[in-house]
Amino acid sequence: xxxxxxxxxxxxxxxxxxxxxxxxxxxxxxxxxxxxxxxxxxxxxxxxxxxxxxxxxxxxxxxxxxxxxxxxxxxxxxxxxxxxxxxxxxxxxxxxxxxxxxxxxxxxxxxxxxxxxxxxxxxxxxxxxxxxxxxxxxxxxxxxxxxxxxxxxxxxxxxxxxxxxxxxxxxxxxxxxxxxxxxxxxxxxxxxxxxxxxxxxxxxxxxxxxxxxxxxxxxxxxxxxxxxxxxxxxxxxxxxxxxxxxxxxxxxxxxxxxxxxxxxxxxxxxxxxxxxxxxxxxxxxxxxxxxxxxxxxxxxxxxxxxxxxxxxxxxxxxxxxxxxxxxxxxxxxxxxxxxxxxxxxxxxxxxxxxxxxxxxxxxxxxxxxx
Amino acid sequence: xxxxxxxxxxxxxxxxxxxxxxxxxxxxxxxxxxxxxxxxxxxxxxxxxxxxxxxxxxxxxxxxxxxxxxxxxxxxxxxxxxxxxxxxxxxxxxxxxxxxxxxxxxxxxxxxxxxxxxxxxxxxxxxxxxxxxxxxxxxxxxxxxxxxxxxxxxxxxxxxxxxxxxxxxxxxxxxxxxxxxxxxxxxxxxxxxxxxxxxxxxxxxxxxxxxxxxxxxxxxxxxxxxxxxxxxxxxxxxxxxxxxxxxxxxxxxxxxxxxxxxxxxxxxxxxxxxxxxxxxxxxxxxxxxxxxxxxxxxxxxxxxxxxxxxxxxxxxxxxxxxxxxxx
Lengths: 370, 327
Ligand SMILES: Cc1cc2nc3c(=O)[nH]c(=O)nc-3n(C[C@H](O)[C@H](O)[C@H](O)COP(=O)(O)OP(=O)(O)OC[C@H]3O[C@@H](n4cnc5c(N)ncnc54)[C@H](O)[C@@H]3O)c2cc1C
Known about the structure:
Number of helices of chain A: 11
Helix content of chain A: 40-55%
Shape of chain B: globular
Strand order of the largest sheet of chain A: 1-4-5-8
CATH architecture of the domain at 179-326 in chain B: Up-down Bundle
Largest sheet of chain A: 4 strands, mixed
CATH class of the largest domain in chain A: Mainly Alpha
Strand content of chain B: 5-15%
Number of strands of chain B: 7
Order of helices and strands of chain A: HHHHHEEEEEEEEHHHHHH
Bound molecules: flavin-adenine dinucleotide
CATH topology of the domain at 179-326 in chain B: Butyryl-CoA Dehydrogenase, subunit A, domain 3
Number of helices of chain B: 10
Strand order of the largest sheet of chain B: 1-2-5-4-3
Structural class of chain B: alpha+beta
Structural class of chain A: alpha+beta
Helix content of chain B: 55-70%
CATH class of the domain at 179-326 in chain B: Mainly Alpha
CATH topology of the largest domain in chain A: Butyryl-CoA Dehydrogenase, subunit A, domain 3
CATH superfamily of the largest domain in chain A: Butyryl-CoA Dehydrogenase, subunit A, domain 3
CATH superfamily of the domain at 179-326 in chain B: Butyryl-CoA Dehydrogenase, subunit A, domain 3
Number of domains of chain A: 3
Oligomer: heterodimer
Order of helices and strands of chain B: HHHHHEEEEEHEEHHHH
């Protein structure tokens, strides 16, 4: 396997490290997390660090995929905010969008001006995504969409939603689902934020009542949205695609800085976390390299990535609560570790639950009988 | 609920079962309430009416009104609905007063701990734990029972219980080391019962949910992955229960204090480690809804995370168990 020109990568890494030393931002008092992340995304974009593997015509850099890993690693090591997670929503547009759609949506996605959310899950369609009931009825010049979405992360800040709706028969399962870009300020869209386990409003319900969506906002062929959905969730399972590699790197960095490194038990625990984190990085490198040398879209192999990513997430944040000690719980220090631990519990639920990933690995990668 | 028979199956006497159902009924009402302070106080009043705040008061012969086993049953039942009425703190404080013969002023008491919760309060490092309804907090400090006045509320992770700063303190009476350590043993039993209830309460709910939540056209409880999640957690709950029942029996029998002390250490060390794991499994079974504030799963998680630390977290207790079995 060839991981690319190491000298170029090393040069890129040095340049990025220098840049990060001067450009990392911190949240303004009271600034909501998504707005802060948006601002950071824009800063990174202006620095030329976003869309490294994306086509230049939409604001990308057309570098190799491996640069995204380097970006994640350096952003993490600098204890900077998460690398932007454009990867997973943008890919559907890049793959299936018309030229007009790409011109319309991709630049804003890459430069961070537009905030996107994902409208897949519904109350009766969580793990069983093919059970969605939200309906898009064709009419003059487009569709009317009616239904309900749930758990849509940062929907209350989003400009656009990549939304799945049924255009075929109600019992069609994964046939007859179409993908749309819905403008979140369209009449008939109502958003109800849900307070998450952390106490912050993190995700929302989206109610759609006869929302008019032009035909030009449908991605791909009518009724053929399932592969789009599957590709999107496959990307959502990649640690570099969602910027989580950087998040874990930063957390480790922070944990280490506040730990008692004279205690051998602490060192053992930190060392183990470091190894697992590094392995995740190496795995992601390999995965991105494979992507480069093949035209195949990401598929069931991304479930391996998701399981690895989740295990690092949960091991890291479980250990952080132990290492930070009761102070992280009993109100003596900033409860950030608790927040991250709680959010880490969601990692085995969102983007396809742990059990569903293991089913995919067993059935589709190992070929075990259903 | 389908797993209820397991819960009471080790109850030794009719009295134990009756106590469990009385406490269970109060817990059920508590569950439908909110976690507002007012609700805690209503719950506390119900507990007081049923005599459940005085389990460890002594009768005229100096015998406790209820065994440690029974106290554990009541604490477990209330913890199942993350009741914040201050029962655990009250029960431990009552034991401390009774065991030391400290003058009981009648003011409701709970316990005072170090700010990291891992041991009794120390000079300059004291908070009031499980403070709902309490007017003072007791601790063993330098060989004496010390009473602290309560101060202002401290924000912390366990929102089902109240944590307060301490005010002025005064010494009530001297306490012998052996007595102090027996109180700690009792406290470990109460805390284990609290962890057991906190974990098994939400696990039972998750099992019930798995029987009704339909995905892919069938209840998720038909998927082996979900069954195994629940089953493994149930094994941990059963083990917590076994060690609690055994350690409580040793404590009540009172013929070998050293052994009772060790058994309680083991029970608390184990529960402190696995209660959180059981609740994490339950969260996994619930899926997205468990990641919301409205849904009670996080109340269980938060409570167990903190209770696990009270009077010794897993790391501290594991080491203590090891050092004892060396000798
Ligand atoms: C923090 C967070 C953010 C999210 N963000 C978004 C978002 O932006 N957009 C969006 O569309 N959705 C989002 N989701 C929703 C997420 O995709 C769903 O929660 C997830 O798919 C699980 O669905 P569910 O919650 O309905 O759980 P269920 O599907 O009801 O699952 C409950 C339990 O059953 C198990 N289970 C289900 N089916 C099987 C099976 N076949 N075999 C074995 N076990 C099974 C699950 O593993 C789980 O343990 C988010 C969720 C969370 C928690």
